[in-house]
Amino acid sequence: MFVVDLTFDCYQDTTLDNAEAAINRVVNALRFNGQIIGEEFPTVLKDGFFITRVMCPEEDSLHPLNHSPFVKHSIGLLQEAGLLAPKVKVIGQDIHSNGADMCHEPSCFILYTTYVHTCSPLYCGDDFQPVPLYKIPAIANGDYKALIKWQEDWQACDQIQINGATRCEFPALHEISDPTSDLSRRGLDLSKRIRYLTQKPVYYYLYRVGGESLDTELARKCPSCNGDWALHEPWFGLFNFRCDSCQLVSNLSWDFQ
Ligand SMILES: [Zn+2]
Ligand SMILES: [Zn+2]
């Protein structure tokens, strides 16, 4: 991922509140369009310029060709707050984060995230690189807000169950591991939508922890069709189970790895 500074020039007197609201609108729009990643975007006021630091999946993520209608609209509204459209300055590549998928035509996708992942929740099924969302057709209302919201909820549930310090632990675990949970149903609907838009398989990930023994875990069946789905070799070293007819993947219970 790339660290990028957005510089907003004030061309007329404005209030801090107005400027802040207008900049936030642009940042949210870019986020829901997959052009910037993350949840915290520090903004400084320096020499009459507002500078917001963001992370982008690709060097040219902020190219206007990638803008959604909401991004264009939000940039247009900057004027009312006395601000010009942002100047984009790429600072460089972040050494900690992962890259972005470069495949021209991935053969399939995987919808997957964890609480530590700061990247697109859509992965290429050929090399397991995160796919910048603006590379696929918009999911609804011109962008990917529904997918980003699903990812936020998934990560929040994952964080709660990993910390294991509250009564929410088991309900949170249920949301990310049971295919009939509210969160899974939302994720499965999104997978179906992406399948329709891209005309490619989209696998949905079900978290797995617990179980009685390694043997019973290895013998686990697909929770949707009850068919065999254990793989001889884990897919990308992570998914030990894959059902091609239901397009579901899962890991070997973390208790037996
Ligand atoms: Zn790829
Ligand atoms: Zn199945």
Please characterize this protein's 3D structure.
This protein is of the alpha+beta class. It folds into 2 domains: 92 residues, Alpha-Beta Plaits; 148 residues, no CATH class. Helices cover 30% and strands 20% of the residues. The chain is built from 6 helices and 10 strands; from the N terminus they run E-H-E-E-H-E-E-E-H-H-H-E-H-E-E-E. The chain has a 6-stranded mixed beta sheet with strand order 6-5-7-10-9-8, with helices on one face. The protein has a 4-stranded antiparallel beta sheet with strand order 2-3-1-4, with no helix packed on it. Helix 1 runs antiparallel to helix 2 and helix 3 packs antiparallel against helix 5. The longest helix is centred in the middle third of the chain and has 19 residues. The radius of gyration is 20 Å and the shape is elongated. The mean pLDDT is 96. The chain binds zinc ion (2 copies). This is Zn-ribbon-containing protein. It holds the Pfam family DUF2310.
Order of helices and strands: EHEEHEEEHHHEHEEE
Using only CA atoms, what is the Rg?
A: 20 Å
Strand segment tally: 10
Report the β-strand fraction as a percent range.
15-25%
Bound molecules: zinc ion
Average pLDDT: 96
Tell me the major beta sheet. 6 strands, mixed
Low confidence ranges: none
Helical residue percent band: 25-40%
Shape: elongated
Protein name: Zn-ribbon-containing protein
Organism: Pseudoalteromonas xiamenensis
Pfam family, one: DUF2310
